[in-house]
Automatic annotation (TrEMBL), chain B:
Organism of this sequence: Thermodesulfatator atlanticus
InterPro entries: NADH_Q_OxRdtase_chainM/4, NADH_UbQ_OxRdtase, ND/Mrp_TM
EC number(s) recorded for this UniProt protein: 1.6.5.11
Protein name: NADH-quinone oxidoreductase subunit M
UniProt keyword Cell division, yes or no: no
Family: Belongs to the complex I subunit 4 family.
Lineage of the species this protein comes from: Bacteria, Pseudomonadati, Thermodesulfobacteriota, Thermodesulfobacteria, Thermodesulfobacteriales
Transmembrane segments: 12-30, 37-59, 79-109, 121-146, 172-192, 213-233, 245-268, 280-301, 307-325, 337-355, 375-405, 412-435, 455-478
Domain NADH:quinone oxidoreductase/Mrp antiporter transmembrane: residue ranges: 136-417
UniProtKB/TrEMBL annotation, chain C:
Chain segments annotated as transmembrane: 6-25, 32-50, 82-102, 114-131, 137-156, 177-195, 215-233, 283-303, 315-338, 382-403, 423-448, 468-488, 526-547, 631-649
Topology versus the membrane: Multi-pass membrane protein
Pfam family, one: Proton_antipo_N
Gene Ontology molecular-function annotations: NADH dehydrogenase (ubiquinone) activity; NADH dehydrogenase activity; quinone binding
Domain NADH:quinone oxidoreductase/Mrp antiporter transmembrane positions: 131-428
Signal peptide bounds: none
Keywords: Membrane, Transmembrane, Transmembrane helix
Any single biological process term in GO: electron transport coupled proton transport
Cellular component GO terms, alphabetical: endomembrane system; membrane
Protein name: NADH-quinone oxidoreductase subunit L
Subcellular localization(s) per the UniProt record: Endomembrane system; Membrane
Organism: Thermodesulfatator atlanticus
UniProtKB/TrEMBL annotation, chain D:
Protein name according to UniProt: NADH-quinone oxidoreductase subunit K
Species this protein is from: Thermodesulfatator atlanticus
Gene Ontology annotations of biological process type: ATP synthesis coupled electron transport
Keywords recorded for this protein, A-Z: Cell inner membrane, Cell membrane, Membrane, NAD, Oxidoreductase, Quinone, Translocase, Transmembrane, Transmembrane helix, Transport, Ubiquinone
Cellular location(s): Cell membrane; Membrane
Role noted for this protein: NDH-1 shuttles electrons from NADH, via FMN and iron-sulfur (Fe-S) centers, to quinones in the respiratory chain. The immediate electron acceptor for the enzyme in this species is believed to be ubiquinone. Couples the redox reaction to proton translocation (for every two electrons transferred, four hydrogen ions are translocated across the cytoplasmic membrane), and thus conserves the redox energy in a proton gradient.
Automatic annotation (TrEMBL), chain E:
GO cellular component, one term: plasma membrane
Gene, per the UniProt record: nuoN
Keyword Nucleotide-binding belongs to the record: no
Gene Ontology terms describing biological process: ATP synthesis coupled electron transport
Cited function: NDH-1 shuttles electrons from NADH, via FMN and iron-sulfur (Fe-S) centers, to quinones in the respiratory chain. The immediate electron acceptor for the enzyme in this species is believed to be ubiquinone. Couples the redox reaction to proton translocation (for every two electrons transferred, four hydrogen ions are translocated across the cytoplasmic membrane), and thus conserves the redox energy in a proton gradient.
Main location: membrane
Enzyme class: translocase
Native source species: Thermodesulfatator atlanticus
Entry superkingdom: Bacteria
Assembly notes: NDH-1 is composed of 14 different subunits. Subunits NuoA, H, J, K, L, M, N constitute the membrane sector of the complex.
Membrane topology term: Multi-pass membrane protein
Chemical reaction(s) catalysed: a quinone + NADH + 5 H(+)(in) = a quinol + NAD(+) + 4 H(+)(out)
Protein name: NADH-quinone oxidoreductase subunit N
């Protein structure tokens, strides 16, 4: 019985993730899509928790659901195209896209049959997580082994801010630009 | 074949090659005063020509190896050196190149009025690159000069050429480029096999036949286009037709010789077994070029086009001689290259003379010129006769030796090649008749005869035509030792030849990923 | 004997100087230098002749001409009876014709050019005959061809003249093609092309064979036939005879010198020179005899139908050249050379006489048309007499030069050991009659009867030519009579000095008399002589009958056998046949097939087709890059899928 | 324990759905969301792998991916807004001035 | 487990760039003399270059090593930065691009590239790549007054993010197989676990191929590049045609040659068809272009096809060849773009190739320079382009890719046509309209620098070849 419950939980989560993501992809209304995506992210957070990654689950909710999706929603509302509901929301070659996507899944799945994970190499065992805490383990790795990457992410976010500022700042448009 | 070297005390070849380059750089800085520029380039060209004269007198004719050798390390990483030297095969071309440059400046004196500075820069650079090609003993250096020459030549035809020049230049450039890049593959392969670009060392490589076979064709691509051999000849009529007179003269005089020179210097000495095995196809292509080029001349209505196609035919003789692999024929072929340079160059100069006056190249626009311009007609007559190969002119000696040698090695080729002599007489005399004989065409009535400057450019050619025709011994004398050594090398080369099907199978095996 | 070098050199110098400075400085005085040079050459030649008669021989190289790998040849001279005879004859005739031209060419704008050219020609011809190797022979061979080209096209403004010049050169090229191959074969066989070693070793290859298209052919046959191709071109033998009649477009002295006396006989000279090779091969001899015989007959049938005085004489030349080759073809090389020698004088005389007539008629639109002549003997007696003598000589009237040489040929043919000798004799005898007929046809039409050209002359009266022209005629007339006397056969009490003189070089023919006649050789010879003389006289009589006595007979052949007449009048249609078989197809091939299809569609099609394909490919691919980002993504994803698929393929 | 392969399959599905949406949807905002789906798909695998390997690196990477995704979203949405302001259009296939 | 922070010496150059960039971005509003930014960038680039050489050999833990391999690529990036800094001022001034932001973003991008070149960790590689990409997305869209600039940025951004997802997937699978993200460790783990025939590894390799093929614009993952190149401000196009491409190759070298060495046969077989497609598609499409930026975009696709030959060769020589190729390519391509930059006027794009008609008549010097750059791009000696091509072909040939080299040289013949066409227009046609060009000293210096490089390395490439080879010696066995 012990092995069954996590499986049921996983299957539930997996089905919800797939269904919600499909809904995001197919939904005519962008607002609905964002909301379905929220559902998806929440379930993903749950999935993370089942995998003992509590801190990541929190980040998922805070950053993704809390910040990124709000940003999306904000933009969607800002744009607020009524006509959106009336016109085609798929490109004409969506069947080709579908075919290619399915092909990708099949081909990759075939290859992944060969997938063999190595023996556990790290110290982030469930016991360690339970003892020290996920956030602390992660934090330690971030600030020692991955410090340079961390710094880089910092710069990257700076660039993102700078970029967003540069792009959205209203400056004088050059006259006579029919180009 | 072990090639002996004789190092130069004075870097004469470098001086010959780089003097025009320095001249071009100075020209770049000179003010745009046409007279100054013309005189300056003439002086540079004359100085360069004067520099080549010691080659003529200091050259040891009994020494089969390389003379005036200079060697300096250049790109050490790839074992490339700046390695120059001439032997009996190449020395005459250096002389000819220098002479042709001088004459080209003379004949462009009035023909080129636009972008005079650029024109002379391009001319001098072309000249330098051509001489570099003939002097290089390093394959990389050779390729460098070989390709570098394309740029100024492209500009010369494209900027100062005729109305349809754009098509002609692109065709010229791409044609030769396709050939050259295939040779580049061959060069890389040779380098990887030999570990050096040193031509003399590669000669001793003794590659197995299947390699020689493929490499032969890779090099063939470049040389055949340059020569040009049938069926890759169609760039030549277009380029010649559209090129300015100086361009045509350089094309005919030197540029297309580079292909034949390549056959001699590389195809024969690097791939002797393949060269022997491919003799029959090569002779066949040569014969086709001779006859095809001749016949098509009969249908031409354009002066320059006719002479251009006649070049195809004449160069067919050259390749015929080279690939007969017989001493007399090879010497004849080398001499014929010089001859063709002189004669066809002179013919183009002559066409340039009237073109400047009439701005038409259509044969039907001429007629009766012998009445109008008798001196000009006399010059043209001599060059026509040399082109036909009349004994006493240089054309005869070359063609005769080629056919004689070829006859000794492959009879059918000589017989078919000799047919070209008949056709040659037909189209050239037809041309001469239509342009110079008969009633005076009103379009050309009253044209002034040749000027002193034009005579000055034509007389050296005339003298060479008759001198080589009546006393070719000093010129042939350069070649004996080198040609004999080369042919010994070719005939001694050992190697079993495989059937083509076998080669193709192996080739596919190598080329295709397993 | 190195002084023989000056014989060709002097005319060359004269020609060069005249050519370079004639236009501006020498102009009307252009004749002096060449005349003096050629005359001096003539004197030196005479000295050489006497030296050779005295037993001197020489064979030396002036300088090395070509030294290639294994091929070495010099510019050299071989002085022996054959060459010295030719030297003397050429310089002599050349001088006379130089002098004649002073008068004939008097008012021509190309005066200096003319003298330069014929001087150059003299040089070339002398180089040809004095060569000691094949290459120099070939040099002379082509050089005389060039001069012939220049001189036929002397009046280049006339299209017909330019055409004729070109035709002469190109037709000759066909012959030279064979000749050159022959020389190659000689070199490949013997390793040298000097006469002496080649002829000395020629017997070594007597039975050598060479495989040609699967047949074994005797090597000497191949060499000889190839060399003979050259002779056919230069000496205008069938099938390369078509250029000679057209060559009459040139000035008449040129016709006399080049197209009658000297250049066209070079073929005979060459065959004689190489007789060692020819004699090794029966096939080659048969070819020579056949070509000579056929040409001889054909030309003799055409000549009576022509009205252009020069053309008639040209065909007569063809016919006489045929005789010479007939002699060579039966091994009687000395007889051939003898005829060459005598023919030079009387034929030159005929041409110069015709030239004199044309000089008289030069106000006529076509001064060569005999239909506008007639009765000229009272206007120009000297011309008439000399012309008459020449005609008698060519007709084989006993005592004159032509008689001796022609009869020697016929006798040699009849007595020849070669099986075709009898046929050659038969045709030769027949043609002797025809020769006499057409020769006197010219005489009667030109000099007898009433003058028919008054209306075309517009009041100008025909007149005798100036002295400078008539004196050479008179000298030549003497030659046309006396030159035969050096070869009077034994049966007529002569010594046949000529044959004896030539014997060291040319040997003597092998006779094989018919069974039962061996003892009565002299009788037979006399009998044949009588037959041919009778034929000649018959020809003269018929001509007299037709053109003086009963002029209405002139219309007999044209009306009775119009087809035959037209066939002959149109010269057996050879020009038309060549035009249809060679010229037209060649130009058609050139224009339509090679230029029109092969080069522009096939090769250029590929050359331009590939770039076009690339361009079209570019335009197509360009449409894929349609600006829609989804397309890009789709293609990326497809690419990814294909790459994943590749994992399984490998 | 749930086998890793289950997570991998889930990942593939999510990734493919995201890719399909990216290619097939015209609305640029949805396209951006599809990219988020794809990134999240990768995250699922990474977390699963990290657990299997008991390794922090996977979790670190996931953390960074989320951060980068946020940065990308910021830039992407800024561009969307700009484009919309300029053209009143958010369907990406309407932007075809650059082509060929 | 580390007890203390590693030494930061190895990342001094990057730090310098980030600091200067941030300062520039901040003070942009208050500095009116725009030349200050240009000079600051030039000085920073040179200083960073000096630092690169000074810090050579230092490491930053397991994640980062300022090895020789990295040094060479960093030299290229800083060279690109230097040349772009010189070519940009006039153009940016003309179009009102903010100097501070422009140079700051350039420097951030260069920082990202430098991280990619020297990283020993896949995570850092990903982050460096994103840093570079995000900066370049913004740079492409800098000219947001023009629709095409925004459109190009948007397309580049969308497709770039799409490709990033593939990269992440590839990294995830590789990590899953080996349990590490360290490049050397991956190689070791693959060997230890004997995974060289594992399909999942191939899958990962294939996904890496897709991702990097996108970055260096190999067909069919190239489709963003013509649009982005055309849309971007020309100064940015010049930058992105060399910089990110070189960074992509640097990363490719690290990932394929080191990490995935075990699967070499497989990824070679995947790259070969891509290379062939790239060379020919680029060449063929360049033939039909009339916009010179677009033309050069396709040309740069073709050149990527040549450069990837060195990676395909998979040898030390091959990598050195690719590196040398990119180094030389920087000179000629930025040189060519400098001329295009010169053509731009406020109301005149100067991007149609017919605008260049008769340029030799009106501006002979500029025409001559463009001529040299174009012939170098064609690969005609004695220009640098030939040396680069020669080296690459040689390496591929040596590694046994004969057919590939033959195809490459044929493609190079096709690719010659578009360049010739421009030369033809400049030199062989009369000028049709008055083209105004104002050379400022910066761009003139840049042009001179570029042309000197093109010609100098064309005739005397020895030292730089030695440098490239030496840089690979420690990198590959």
């Amino acid at each position: 019985m012990e092995g069954l419950l996590p499986k049921i939980v996983f299957i539930y989560l997996a089905v919800v993730l797939v269904v919600t993501s499909l809904l995001v992809v197919t939904n005519r209304n962008a607002v609905h899509a964002v909301l379905w995506m929220l559902v998806m992210f929440l379930h993903q957070a749950v999935l993370f928790i089942t995998l003992d990654a509590e801190f990541l689950a929190a980040v998922q909710i805070i950053v993704y659901a809390g910040a990124v999706l709000v940003l999306f929603l904000f933009v969607v509302y800002m744009i607020n195209l009524r006509t959106e509901l009336k016109i085609h929301n798929f490109t004409v070659f969506w069947p080709a896209a579908l075919f290619v996507s399915v092909a990708l899944v099949i081909l990759a799945a075939q290859a992944l049959k060969d997938f063999r994970a190595p023996q556990p190499v790290g110290d982030m065992t469930p016991e360690a997580i339970a003892r020290v805490g996920h956030a602390k383990l992660l934090g330690k790795a971030l600030f020692t082994e991955h410090i340079l990457s961390f710094e880089t992410v910092g710069v990257l976010l700076l660039v993102a801010v700078l970029g967003a500022v540069v792009l959205t700042r209203r400056i004088r448009m050059i006259r006579g630009e029919g180009l | 074949m072990e090639v002996a070297l004789r190092t130069a005390e004075f870097p004469l070849l470098s001086a010959i090659i780089w003097l025009p380059v320095i001249g071009a750089i100075i020209l770049l800085l000179l003010p745009r005063r046409d007279r100054l520029i013309r005189w300056f380039s003439l002086v540079v060209a004359l100085a360069d020509f004067a520099l080549t004269l010691p080659l003529f007198s200091w050259f040891d004719k009994d020494f089969a190896g390389m003379q005036f050798v200079e060697k300096h390390a250049w790109i050490k990483a790839w074992h490339i050196s700046y390695f120059l030297g001439v032997d009996g095969i190449s020395v005459l071309f250096v002389l000819l190149s220098a002479l042709v440059t001088v004459l080209c400046i003379l004949i462009s004196w009035e023909a080129v009025t636009e972008k005079v500075k650029e024109f002379h820069i391009a001319l001098l650079l072309t000249s330098a690159a051509m001489m570099g090609v003939f002097c290089s003993l390093d394959l990389f250096l050779f390729y460098l000069f070989w390709e570098a020459m394309l740029i100024p030549m492209y500009l010369i035809i494209g900027i100062w050429g005729g109305p349809n020049r754009l098509y002609a230049t692109i065709k010229f450039f791409l044609y030769t480029l396709v050939g050259s890049v295939l040779m580049l593959v061959g060069i890389i392969f040779l380098y990887l096999k030999a570990g050096t670009f040193n031509i003399l060392e590669i000669m001793q490589l003794g590659l197995p036949y299947q390699f020689q076979f493929w490499l032969f064709w890779a090099f063939f691509a470049a040389f055949a286009v340059k020569v040009p051999m049938w069926p890759v000849h169609t760039w030549l009529p277009d380029a010649h037709t559209e090129a300015p007179t100086a361009g045509s003269v350089i094309l005919a005089g030197i540029l297309i010789k580079m292909g034949a020179y390549g056959f001699l210097r590389f195809s024969l000495s690097f791939f002797p077994v393949a060269a022997k095995a491919m003799m029959v196809p090569m002779l066949l292509l040569s014969v086709i070029a001779i006859i095809y080029g001749g016949i098509i001349c009969l249908a031409q209505t354009d002066l320059k086009r006719l002479i251009a196609y006649s070049s195809v035919s004449h160069m067919g003789f050259v390749t015929l001689g080279i690939f007969s692999l017989e001493g007399n024929a090879v010497e004849g072929a080398i001499l014929q290259m010089i001859n063709h340079g002189i004669v066809t160059g002179a013919l183009f100069m002559c066409v340039g003379v009237v073109y400047e006056r009439t701005h038409t190249r259509a044969i039907k626009d001429y007629g009766g010129l012998a009445t109008v311009m008798p001196i000009y007609a006399a010059f043209f007559m001599v060059f026509t006769l040399a082109s036909i190969g009349l004994p006493g002119t240089n054309g005869f000696i070359g063609e005769f030796l080629i056919l004689l040698g070829t006859f000794a090695s492959k009879r059918w080729a000589a017989v078919l090649g000799a047919l070209g002599v008949i056709i040659g007489a037909t189209y050239m005399l037809r041309l001469y008749q239509q342009v110079f004989y008969q009633e005076v065409n009103p379009k050309v009535a009253g044209l002034p005869d040749v000027k002193m400057r034009e005579v000055l450019a034509l007389v050296p050619m005339l003298i060479l035509v008759l001198l080589i025709g009546c006393y070719p011994t000093p010129f042939l004398g350069f070649m004996h030792a080198s040609v004999r050594a080369l042919l010994e090398h070719v005939h001694q080369a050992a190697g079993t030849t495989l059937p083509i099907s076998e080669i193709l199978k192996e080739g596919l095996h190598v080329v295709l990923p397993s | 004997m190195k002084y023989v070098v000056w014989i060709p050199l002097l005319p060359l110098i004269a020609a060069t100087i005249t050519l370079l400075f004639g236009r501006w400085y020498i102009r009307r005085q252009a004749h002096w230098l060449p005349c003096i040079a050629v005359f001096t050459s003539f004197l030196i030649s005479l000295k050489a002749l006497f030296d050779v008669i005295g037993g001197a021989r020489a064979n030396f190289d002036l300088y090395s001409w070509v030294i290639a790998d294994t091929f070495k040849v010099g510019v050299g001279f071989q002085v022996d009876p054959l060459s010295v005879m030719m030297l003397a004859m050429v310089t002599c005739l050349s001088f006379l014709i130089h002098v004649y031209s002073i008068g004939y060419m008097e008012d021509d704008p190309g005066y200096y050019r003319f003298f330069a050219y014929i001087s150059l020609f003299t040089f070339s011809m002398l180089m040809l005959v004095s060569a000691n190797n094949f290459l120099q022979l070939f040099f002379g061979w082509e050089a005389v061809g060039l001069c012939s080209y220049l001189l036929i096209g002397f009046w280049y403004q006339k299209k017909s003249a330019a055409d004729a010049a070109k035709k002469a050169f190109i037709v000759n090229r066909f012959g030279d093609f064979g000749f050159a191959l022959g020389v190659f074969l000689v070199f490949v066989t013997f390793g040298t092309i000097y006469y002496e070693p080649v002829f000395a070793r020629v017997h070594e290859i007597a039975h050598a064979t060479v495989n040609l298209f699967g047949h074994d052919i005797l090597l000497p046959t191949l060499i000889a036939v190839l060399l003979f191709c050259g002779a056919m071109g230069k000496s205008a033998q069938f099938p390369l005879h078509v250029w000679l009649p057209d060559a009459m477009e040139g000035p008449t002295p040129v016709s006399a010198l080049i197209h009658a006396a000297t250049m066209v006989t070079a073929g005979v000279f060459m065959v004689s020179r190489c007789h060692e090779i020819f004699e090794l091969s029966n096939v080659a001899m048969a070819v020579v005899a056949a070509a000579g015989t056929f040409t001889c007959f054909m030309a003799a049938t055409i000549a009576p139908t022509q009205f252009d005085i020069k053309r008639v004489i040209a065909y007569s030349t063809l016919s006489q050249l045929g005789y010479m080759f007939m002699a060579c073809g039966v091994g009687a090389f000395a007889a051939g050379m003898f005829h060459l020698f005598t023919h030079a004088y009387f034929k030159a005389l005929l041409f110069l006489g015709a030239g004199s007539v044309m000089h008289a008629m030069h106000h006529a639109p076509d001064p060569t048309d005999m239909r506008y002549m007639g009765g000229l003997k009272k206007y120009m007696p000297i011309t008439f007499i000399t012309f008459f003598i020449a005609s008698l000589s060519i007709s084989g009237v006993p005592g004159l030069a032509g008689f001796f040489s022609k009869d020697e040929i016929l006798w040699s043919a009849f007595a020849s050991a070669y099986p075709w000798g009898k046929i050659v004799w038969l045709v030769g005898t027949l043609v002797a009659g025809l020769t006499a007929f057409y020769s006197f046809r010219v005489v009667f039409m030109t000099f007898y009867g009433e003058f028919r050209g008054r209306e075309v002359l517009h009041g100008h009266e025909p007149h005798e030519s100036p002295k400078v022209m008539t004196i050479p005629l008179m000298i030549l007339a003497v030659g046309a009579v006396v030159t035969g006397w050096i070869g009077i056969p034994h049966v007529l009490g002569g010594e046949n000095h000529f044959a004896k003189f030539m014997e060291p070089v040319l040997g003597h023919p092998h006779f094989h008399l018919p069974h039962g006649w061996e003892e009565k050789e002299a009788l037979l010879e006399l009998l044949l002589m009588a037959v041919s003389t009778a034929m000649g006289l018959l020809g003269i009589y018929v001509a007299y009958l037709v053109y003086i006595k009963r002029p209405e007979l002139q219309r007999l052949v044209p009306e009775r056998w119009p087809t035959l007449y037209r066939y002959l009048y149109r010269k057996w249609y050879w020009d038309e046949i060549y035009h249809a078989l060679i010229v037209r197809p060649t130009f058609f091939t050139a224009r339509a097939i090679v230029q029109g299809v092969l080069d522009s569609i096939f090769i250029e099609g590929v050359v331009n087709g590939v770039p076009d394909m690339i361009r079209r490919g570019g335009e197509t691919l360009r449409r894929v890059q349609n600006g829609v980002v989804h397309t890009y993504a789709l293609i990326m994803a497809t690419g990814a899928a294909v790459i994943l698929l590749l994992i399984y393929l490998f | 324990m749930i086998p890793v392969s289950w997570y991998l399959v889930l990942t593939l599905f999510l990734f493919a759905i995201g890719a399909f949406g990216f290619i097939a949807r015209r609305n640029v905002i949805i396209m951006l969301m599809c990219i988020e789906i794809m990134l999240n798909a990768v995250n699922v695998t990474l977390v699963a792998l990290g657990r299997g390997l008991a390794h922090t690196t996977a979790h670190v990477l996931v953390f960074f991916i989320i951060a980068v995704a946020a940065a990308e979203a910021a830039i992407g949405l800024a561009l969307v807004v700009l484009l919309f302001k300029k053209t009143r259009e958010i369907h990406m296939d309407e932007f075809r001035t650059l082509k060929g | 487990m580390w007890s203390s922070l590693p030494s930061f010496v190895a990342v001094y150059p990057e730090t310098l760039l980030v600091v200067v960039a941030s300062v520039m971005a901040l003070v942009d509003r208050w500095i009116t003399r725009k030349a200050v930014f240009t000079w600051a960038t030039i000085v920073t680039a040179l200083l960073a270059l000096a630092l690169v050489f000074l810090t050579q050999g230092t490491t930053f833990g397991h994640a980062y090593a300022a090895d020789q391999y990295g040094v060479f690529f960093k030299t290229i990036f800083l060279l690109v930065l230097f040349l772009v800094a010189l070519l940009a001022p006039g153009y940016n001034q003309l179009l009102g691009i903010n100097f501070g932001e422009f140079y700051a973003l350039l420097m951030y991008a260069v920082t990202g590239m430098m991280l990619m070149a020297s990283t020993r960790d896949l995570i850092l590689l990903y982050l460096g790549l994103e840093l570079m990409s995000l900066s370049v997305y913004v740079l492409v869209g800098l000219l947001y007054a023009e629709l095409r600039s925004l459109e190009g940025a948007m397309k580049y951004f969308l497709l770039g993010s799409f490709a990033s997802a593939f990269l992440l997937l590839a990294m995830a699978f590789l990590y899953g197989l080996t349990g590490t993200t360290n490049i050397e460790a991956i190689a070791k783990a693959l060997l230890a676990a004997n995974l060289s025939a594992n399909k999942a590894l191939f899958l990962s390799a294939a996904l890496f191929v897709v991702a990097f093929a996108f970055k260096v614009a190999l067909v069919p993952f190239h489709m963003w590049s013509p649009d982005a190149y055309e849309g971007a401000p020309t100064s940015v196009t010049a930058f992105m045609s060399v910089g990110p491409k070189a960074a992509g190759f640097a990363a490719m070298g690290r990932v394929f040659l080191i990490a995935l060495a075990a699967a070499k046969t497989e990824w070679t077989q995947l790259l070969v068809p891509l290379a062939v497609l790239t060379m020919f598609t680029g060449a063929v499409l360049a033939v039909v272009q009339t916009n010179i930026k677009r033309l050069l975009a396709y040309s740069s696709i073709t050149h990527a096809g040549y450069a990837v030959l060195g990676i395909i060769a998979g040898t030390k020589e091959g990598m050195a060849a690719t590196m040398l190729y990119l180094f030389l390519y920087a000179f000629m391509n930025i040189g060519a773009f400098s001329v295009i930059v010169l053509m731009r006027r406020r109301n005149f794009l100067g991007e149609n190739i017919f605008d260049y008609q008769g340029l030799s008549k009106t501006h002979p010097t500029v025409a001559l320079l463009l001529l040299i750059f174009l012939f170098s791009l064609t690969g005609i000696p004695p220009t640098a382009g030939f040396i680069g091509k020669f080296f690459v072909f040689r390496a591929a040939f040596e590694a046994g890719h004969t057919a590939l080299v033959i195809l490459a040289v044929l493609a190079s013949a096709i690719a010659a046509y578009p360049y010739l066409r421009i030369v033809m227009l400049m030199y062989m046609k009369p000028p049709e309209k008055e083209v105004e060009i104002s050379l400022n000293p910066y761009i003139f210096a840049g042009l001179m620098f570029a042309v000197t490089g093109v010609l100098l390395f064309g005739v005397y490439p020895g030292p730089v070849i030695d440098f490239a080879r030496a840089c690979c010696t420690g990198f590959l066995p």
